[in-house]
Amino acid sequence: MGGVQVQGVFIGKAEELGGGLCSAMDKRRVEHRLWLWPQGLGGDEQGDPRFHGGPERALHHYPAEHYAYWRRRYPQVAWDAPAFGENLSTLGLTEDHVCIGDLFRWGGALLQVSQPRSPCYRLNRHWTLLDLPREVQDAGRCGWFYRVIKPGFVSYAEPFELVQRSYPGLSVAQALRHYYHYPLERVGLQQLRDCAALSTRWRETAKRRLASHQVEDWSARLGGLPLEGKRA
Predict the structure, then answer these.
(1) Helix intervals (H) in the chain
(2) Helix 200-212 and helix 186-194: axis angle, to 10°?
(3) Banded pLDDT at 67 (limits 50, 70, 90)
(4) Contact 119, 142 (CB under 8 A)
(5) Of 36, 111, 113, 208, which residue has the fewest beta carbons closer than 10 angstroms?
(6) 86-118 in b/e burial notation, b at 16+ Cβ within 10 A?
(7) pLDDT band at 195 (very low <50, low <70, confident <90, very high)
(8) pLDDT for residue 229 is more than 60
(9) Rounded CA gap, 164 and 162, in Å?
């Protein structure tokens, strides 16, 4: 793995989208140091804490490399970070290069990759592109989340370095294929279930699929429901 270049750090406030729906996707660039808590970056908010944020989804990382693809796909949109609501944008890491459980040191903090992102309907609400969440999912350009093992100060100027890899056989890209592209393939589901570093939500879903031989309904996440996204 070569050098990683941090392109930007972003935080946002939860705002009304209309109809009682909230989102914190409209994030702003921050160039000063921030404290990274177990719940996420200081000053960052979540539109709906039932489905976003929390200790296993404390920080969203989205590769800057992907924006070339989205510019080709939707040239009418001025794609640039943080268009996908990411907290961290880099060059040098993609889903193929990062594995579940990887430990990274960033400034004074220690992070562990916990799961891929599950794209949701807030993307289509934000960009008025109806099929965008499904396209992100199908393309495997989802980014990933971290849990914070050690809190600390971080900034765009701090190095971002891999310090340990415990599950080299389960990249973020492979986890996305197991979970979305071949969602009932048993060997893949067993690999997800047995990876102790994978988030509880993803492991429990893999266990349910193995037991039921059925895939859960994705329509609420991808398309939204009338009460989805309302703040508790």
Answers:
(1) 67-73, 122-127, 132-139, 172-176, 186-194, 200-212, 219-223
(2) 140
(3) very high
(4) yes
(5) 208
(6) bbbbbebbbbebbbbbbbbbbbebbbbbbbbbb
(7) very high
(8) no
(9) 6
